[in-house]
Amino acid sequence: MLKLLTALQTRQADDYTIVNEPILSSELMERAAKAFIKVFLDRFPDRKKHILIFCGKGNNGGDGLVISRMLFDEGYHHVHTYIADFSEKQSEDYLLNLERLQQKDVSIFYINQAADLEFIESDLIIDALLGSGLNKALQGEWEKLVKKINKFSGFKISVDVPTGLPCEGELLSEAIIKSDLTIAFQRPKLNFLLPISSPYIKEWKVVNIGLDENFIQSTSSPYFWFWKADIQKYIKPRQAFEHKGLLGHALMVAGADETIGAALLCTEACHRSGAGLTTALIPEMGLRALNARVPEAMYFSRNNLDKIDWLKYEVIGIGPGLGVSEESSKLLNEVLANFKKPIVIDADAINLLAQNHQLMKLIPQKSVLTPHMKEFDRLFGTHDSWWERIETALKKSVELKVYIVLKNRYTMIFTPEGICYFNSSGSPAMASGGMGDVLTGMITSMIAQGYAVEKAVQLAVFSHGYAGEQLAHKMYVVPASNLIKQIPYILRELMVK
């Protein structure tokens, strides 16, 4: 898994690499620019494109000057470089690369104030004004320049991070370059993974610039990024003599008279994700639909709850379509009072917990809460920002000794050890009703099969997103029912051959 860094930690990794590789800072800048150029050449091979490059006088501007020189050497001869000359302060690497660029036949212009910059037609605009060191809102000429560039036509590409966007933490202002593509160095910035970046980054790509990975892994950070290769390390193949009795029994507690669909979705997802046995504790009126939709699933009547053998189940998933009626509340109370193994708690079960916080004390350790943003705020209080939610989730997962799955484009998994994992898979095409119900069924299934809870959650979250991602290649919208059908195929694909 990739450890994610703050802006300060990234600068420390830069410094460590420079000292211990060893390599000159200017040479590291060359390496970063080469990595940027490689992506650029693949995306924009037409050498006739008109390109504007906007540079500051710090190291991000130095990157821009190297990029300008390399583009010229690659045959892009319609490159115009603009330097924001708003202060006397300038870095040594900026000065070195300015001197190198001046030896080329490249147009260089200085902007003393934003008003001096006229509107220019261009195919491509490269933003290398200010990098990851930003710690305050842009003001004065910087703010005016950014707002003016945002009005320019042309595809905008930011170097490492859009100017004005902090790498982590709250937005400082709205004076931020609106990039179409951001090419980041070594790691995605934490804010790339949160909705606050949406107005400013349409697409991002990370390039390796050779920072010392041993140093990065040794840094103290609670944030990690996991992807396909991580999941493939522990997904378990079926063994020759395994049978349903060895692959776990899951109980899905879901649905109300008006919302049987949610119960069917989570039950079918649990079954298709590989649980040996799946039983649905749903309203009796949904039995016919259950038999038609998931004939492999068993049924337990809510009228016979006093006869249930809680010990026969490895895990319970509860909440999808459950409703918040008094009957639903009693059902949740019954589950929490009698079941001491992990419980996957979603949707209306979370809403019921929000109405009665005393029930939180009954949640078994290593259970899983799977809220979306609004459910999270109902449960833990109103938050003004995503960073406040992250702080709360880190605290509450440790305090309650549970896993919190905060659903988003890059879903976050918070652990009882105070770790936050960002999931790399998924697609906006998955933004449709029922997706959370499917994920609940998948997580429940993986726990039933004997995966450690943390691995079960990671496997379910990634494969859920990966299935949607694959379907999105051929579907504008991915309905939850379609995704369920893909689950067995996706799990088979993820197994290392």
From TrEMBL:
Q: Which residues bind K(+)?
A: N60, D127, T163
- Residues forming the YjeF N-terminal domain are 10-217
Question: What is written in the cofactor note of this entry?
Answer: Binds 1 potassium ion per subunit.
Indicate the segments forming the YjeF C-terminal domain, all copies.
Answer: 227-494
Q: Which domain of life is it from?
A: Bacteria
Q: Which residues bind AMP?
A: K407, N408, R409, Y410, T411, G436
Q: PROSITE patterns annotated for this entry?
A: YJEF_C_2, YJEF_C_3, YJEF_N
Q: Which residues bind (6S)-NADPHX?
A: 59-63, 131-137, 160, 262, 321, 372, 437
User: Sorted alphabetically, which CDD domains does this protein's record hold?
Assistant: YXKO-related
List UniProt keywords, sorted A-Z.
Answer: ATP-binding, Isomerase, Lyase, Metal-binding, Multifunctional enzyme, NAD, NADP, Nucleotide-binding, Potassium
According to the UniProt entry, what is the EC number of this protein? Answer: 4.2.1.136, 5.1.99.6
Q: Which residues form a coiled coil?
A: none
Q: Write down the chemical reaction(s) this protein catalyses.
A: (6R)-NADHX = (6S)-NADHX; (6S)-NADPHX + ADP = AMP + phosphate + NADPH + H(+); (6S)-NADHX + ADP = AMP + phosphate + NADH + H(+); (6R)-NADPHX = (6S)-NADPHX
The cofactors it requires, by name, are: Mg(2+); K(+)
Protein function: Catalyzes the epimerization of the S- and R-forms of NAD(P)HX, a damaged form of NAD(P)H that is a result of enzymatic or heat-dependent hydration. This is a prerequisite for the S-specific NAD(P)H-hydrate dehydratase to allow the repair of both epimers of NAD(P)HX. Catalyzes the dehydration of the S-form of NAD(P)HX at the expense of ADP, which is converted to AMP. Together with NAD(P)HX epimerase, which catalyzes the epimerization of the S- and R-forms, the enzyme allows the repair of both epimers of NAD(P)HX, a damaged form of NAD(P)H that is a result of enzymatic or heat-dependent hydration.
- Protein family according to the UniProt entry: Belongs to the NnrD/CARKD family. Belongs to the NnrE/AIBP family.
Summary of subunit composition and partner proteins:
Homotetramer.
Q: Write down what this protein is called.
A: Bifunctional NAD(P)H-hydrate repair enzyme
* Source organism of this protein record: Pedobacter alpinus
